[in-house]
Specification:
mainly beta; 6-stranded antiparallel β-sheet; 12% helix; elongated
Length: 400
């Protein structure tokens, strides 16, 4: 067996297991939908969805996805635009990418000031628009990471779960109200798109001019209350110059609309643009303010720092080292510590005491052995000999 090859295979397998394990160890982001509103039941009407997000700690690769369930073969609403995934202090941690009916907010970077923060949480919101697939329905479904999270009632302008506006029918094509109007909207690339809408009389020729952007030759004219394709006629106008077209309103038409094909850039330092148009001498003007199509915020808690250890104070002078544990012939001058209670000293017999000999403190050491005991035995022998001699002398005296 080639042990080197086997070892390499084992090492590779261990690394793959480790990497695979690490990939699944990421802390997820938990998201919720807290409120959803629908301004109307007509197509192109605005939808707003709001929610919260949270995670124990920010990690690259975390994400959450907000979407919907298709109806009538398509998405009942689609998101307006992508927007940055940012926090309270403006730090950018990723991107919320809008792709038709799918909005995915993903963490792609961790700012240095968030590397150690925990319990990171915030809010998110995004705009969408009702689509033709919603026609004939009364509600849609909002999903979070593939799971059903909330029902959205078309026309629920308050977000309370019931229709409050345009509730006489189910979802329908956009209203073709007869009105003279110039209006604009914000695109996903921070530009503004425009439309020119005006009341027409069938068989009348109209000259339409836009002073700020180019026009094309496509005009739509409605013959009913909505822009239902079955009752809407598409007209090809005559191009007079880049900014001017003319055409004759078709029979039974009530209102016509044209969409300039070019998007208007917002001048640097401004947040709005104005557009001017003219139809048969009638002037129309509109100012559109750039609106964000979504946003996020968030913050976290600072990781607790360990307490600062105080610097040690100036040390006290080193205490005296204890003397040799041999019995001392001098009384100790050093007071004992409170916890070192002295042991009681047995009272010596009268015949063994000497008035001029200080009492030695009782030793708390273990019994001594060897040469340390030699003086003790010698002293004991001399004492015994002296007592014996004294006894003999007393006996001799008694006999006299």
């Amino acid at each position: 067996m080639n042990t080197r090859t086997t070892g390499g295979v084992l090492l590779t397998g261990a690394l793959l297991f480790s990497l695979s394990h690490a990939a699944y160890a990421s802390t997820p982001i938990k998201a919720e939908v807290t409120k959803a509103t629908s301004s109307s039941r007509q197509t192109s009407s605005e939808i707003n969805v709001r929610g919260t997000w949270s995670t124990e700690k920010l990690e690259v690769g975390q994400s959450f996805t907000v979407s919907t369930v298709p109806v009538n073969g398509g998405a009942p609403f689609t998101w307006n635009a992508s927007f940055p995934f940012t926090l309270d202090d403006g730090s950018r941690v990723g991107e919320c990418t809008a792709d038709q009916a799918t909005l995915t907010c993903k963490v792609t970077e961790i700012p240095a000031n968030y590397a150690d923060k925990t319990d990171v949480h915030g809010t998110w919101w995004a705009r969408a628009r009702l689509q033709d697939a919603a026609i004939g329905t009364t509600e849609g479904t909002i999903t979070l990471d593939g799971e059903v999270d909330k029902k959205l009632i078309w026309g629920d302008a308050e977000g309370n779960g019931v229709c409050t506006n345009d509730c006489n029918s189910a979802g329908h094509y956009e209203y073709a109200r007869p009105e003279n109007l110039k209006f604009g909207w914000t695109n996903d690339n921070n530009t503004v798109g425009w439309a020119i809408k005006w009341i027409v009389t069938p068989g009348t020729e109209y000259v339409v001019k836009d002073f700020d952007t180019r026009l094309n030759t496509t005009v739509k004219c409605a013959k009913s209350e909505t822009w239902d394709p079955a009752t809407t006629e598409n007209v090809t106008a005559t191009q007079i110059d880049d900014n001017t077209i003319k055409f004759t309103a078709p029979a039974e038409s009530r209102v016509c609309i044209t969409y300039p094909p070019e998007q208007m850039k917002v001048p640097e330092g401004q947040n709005s643009v104005t557009n001017h148009a003219e139809i048969n001498g009638m002037k129309l003007e509109a100012t559109t303010t750039v609106r964000s199509n979504g946003g996020t915020d968030g913050d976290g808690s600072e990781k607790p720092k360990p307490p600062v250890t105080p610097e040690p104070s100036t040390p006290n002078p080193e205490p005296s080292k204890p003397s040799d544990p041999k019995p001392s012939t001098e009384p100790s001058e050093t007071p004992k510590k409170a916890e070192d209670k002295p042991q009681s000293v047995p009272t010596p017999s009268p015949e063994k005491s000497r008035g001029d000999s200080p009492k030695s403190p009782a030793s708390t050491s273990l019994a001594r052995t060897g040469s340390d005991l030699t003086p003790f035995f010698i002293g004991t022998g001399l004492l015994a000999a002296g007592l014996g001699a004294l006894a003999i002398r007393r006996m001799s005296g008694d006999k006299k």
